[in-house]
């Protein structure tokens, strides 16, 4: 808060001329008019954590504004003026009390919309005009259906509609050719599947665990090293959830999925749920050796749906294919159990330099019935996510002259995978077997 007050003071003193990003969080009840002095430069405006309920009608004066965050404020509707901002591509109004989105509130070049944890019961059909939309985050609302016009958003790749009131799987999602990351858990149509799994979830009281250093942080929670006080004390990892609802959905859905996923060589797994901790409920997980590191960082504001890899990260072809094989096998295992991971991304993978890998973070995961008519389509959606990952890995291989024969085989197989994934005619079993054949034959 002090930083917000300091920034506000600098803004009012005219000391921020030329800045491209402005962050103010200090209990604002009105939009500071001094922001318009930055109209020639401002691209990112973050007013999260205030008490705002409206934006000025002349907001489009910020003609270069590309990103606006107004999370954790007091908005009851998404301001219609946003639709008039000529350069706006990203809108984030998480954790307000928004119950209405005006037909004119969505700008034409919108790529990323975050309305997580609000009170929406419907979306306007005007969302179909957002032809550049790639990321739609609506978890924790009251949506009972999605508009048919959503099918016009043909660039949509990530959709979060977990923790809503959907009584049936939204069929419009199956008409999105680029959809690769989908969170649908915690809705009435799959609630029974989730309840059946919660019955067997083991629990640990917070008094039995002592937290240590922070290891990492994701959309749904924060990971700590910890000591579990058993007869023989065990060093573990603990994930504490960030709230009653996260960007991906309900924490209890993640708990149930972790339990149902079972054991697999390439899944991190779970020991028990943690109850009664002052910071919130969580999970007790195996502690993975520090020799395993996160494969990539999450997407940035600029990349939108693409993970951010270290510029110097390179692999041999065998390590890259071993890594891909392990993840494909883990995904195959999950789908056999009626589980959609929902967030099959490099930033949710821990990898070793020898090609071993673990798929983790079930925050966006959900249950589905393998007998449902739309069940095969869910695997097709997740296969698209895997193909993104596969292409990223193959692009980071250091090929040598001696690898020409293998390189040709890999490239041919890669092209086939992309074509078949686009047509919805390849499964994780196919991918796992194809990778294994290349590894075994070379």
Number-wise, the strands total: 21
**In total, how many domains does the architecture comprise?**
3
CATH 4th-level superfamily of the largest domain: Ribonuclease Inhibitor
Helical content class: 10-25%
What structural class do the secondary elements suggest? alpha/beta
What is the CATH topology assignment of the largest domain?
A: Leucine-rich repeat, LRR (right-handed beta-alpha superhelix)
* Low-pLDDT segments: none
Span of the ends, CA to CA: 59 Å
What's the total helix number? 7
Any idea what the CATH architecture of the largest domain is? Alpha-Beta Horseshoe
CATH class of the largest domain: Alpha Beta
**What is the overall shape?**
globular
Strand proportion, as a percent range, falls in 15-25%
Give me the strand/helix succession: HEEEEEEEEEEHEEEEHEEEHEEEEHHH
Largest sheet, in brief, is: 8 strands, parallel
Backbone CA Rg: 23 Å
Task: Provide a compact summary of the structure.
The chain is α/β, with parallel strands linked by helices and 442 residues long. The protein is 24% helix and 17% strand.
Can you put this structure into words, describing what you see?
It is built from seven helices and 21 strands. The longest helix is centred in the last third of the chain and has 20 residues, at 317-336. The strands form five sheets. An eight-stranded parallel β-sheet has the order 1-2-3-5-7-8-9-10. It has a six-stranded mixed β-sheet with strand order 11-15-16-14-13-12, with helices on one face. The protein is 24% helix and 17% strand. The protein has 442 residues and is α/β, with parallel strands linked by helices. The chain has three domains: 2-191, Alpha-Beta Horseshoe (Leucine-rich repeat, LRR (right-handed beta-alpha superhelix)); 194-286, Phosphorylase Kinase, domain 1, CATH 3.30.200; 293-441, Transferase(Phosphotransferase) domain 1 (Transferase(Phosphotransferase), domain 1, Orthogonal Bundle). The protein starts with a helix and ends with a helix.
């Amino acid at each position: 808060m002090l930083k917000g007050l300091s920034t506000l003071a600098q803004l009012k003193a005219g000391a921020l001329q030329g800045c491209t990003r402005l962050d103010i969080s200090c209990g604002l009840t009105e939009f500071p008019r001094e922001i318009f002095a930055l109209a020639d430069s401002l691209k990112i405006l973050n007013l999260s954590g205030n008490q705002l309920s409206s934006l000025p009608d002349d907001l489009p004066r910020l003609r270069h504004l590309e990103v606006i965050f107004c999370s954790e404020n007091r908005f009851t509707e998404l301001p219609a003026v946003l639709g008039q901002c000529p350069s706006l591509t990203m809108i984030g109004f998480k954790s307000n009390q928004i119950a209405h989105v005006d037909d004119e509130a969505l700008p034409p070049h919108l790529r990323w919309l975050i309305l997580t944890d609000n009170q929406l019961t419907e979306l306007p059909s005007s969302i179909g005009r957002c032809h550049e939309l790639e990321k739609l985050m609506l978890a924790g609302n009251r949506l009972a259906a999605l508009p048919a016009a959503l099918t016009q958003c043909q660039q949509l790749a990530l959709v979060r509609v977990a923790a809503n009131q959907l009584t049936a799987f939204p069929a419009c999602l199956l008409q999105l050719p680029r959809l690769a990351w989908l969170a649908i858990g915690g809705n009435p149509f799959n609630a029974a599947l989730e309840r059946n799994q919660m019955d067997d979830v083991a629990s640990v009281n917070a008094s039995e665990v002592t937290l240590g250093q922070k290891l990492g942080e994701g959309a749904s929670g924060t990971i700590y090293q910890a000591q579990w006080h058993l007869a023989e004390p065990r060093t573990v990892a603990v994930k504490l959830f960030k709230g009653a609802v996260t960007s991906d959905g309900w924490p209890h859905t993640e708990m149930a999925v972790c339990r149902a996923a079972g054991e697999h060589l390439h899944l991190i797994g779970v020991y028990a749920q943690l109850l009664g901790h002052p910071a919130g409920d969580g999970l007790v997980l195996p502690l993975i050796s520090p020799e395993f590191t996160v494969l990539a960082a999450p997407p940035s504001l600029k990349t939108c749906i693409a993970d951010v890899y270290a510029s110097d990260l390179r692999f041999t072809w065998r390590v890259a294919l071993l890594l891909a094989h392990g993840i494909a096998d883990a995904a195959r295992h999950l789908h056999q159990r009626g589980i959609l991971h929902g967030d099959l991304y490099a930033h949710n993978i821990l990898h070793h330099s020898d090609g071993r890998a673990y798929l983790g973070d079930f925050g966006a995961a959900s249950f589905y019935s393998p007998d449902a008519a739309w069940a095969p389509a869910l695997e097709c959606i997740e296969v698209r996510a895997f193909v993104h990952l596969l292409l990223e890995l193959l692009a980071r291989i250091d090929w040598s002259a001696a690898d020409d024969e293998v390189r040709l085989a890999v490239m041919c197989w890669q092209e086939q995978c992309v074509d078949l994934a686009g047509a919805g005619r390849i499964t994780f079993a196919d991918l796992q077997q194809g990778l294994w054949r290349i590894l075994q034959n070379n």
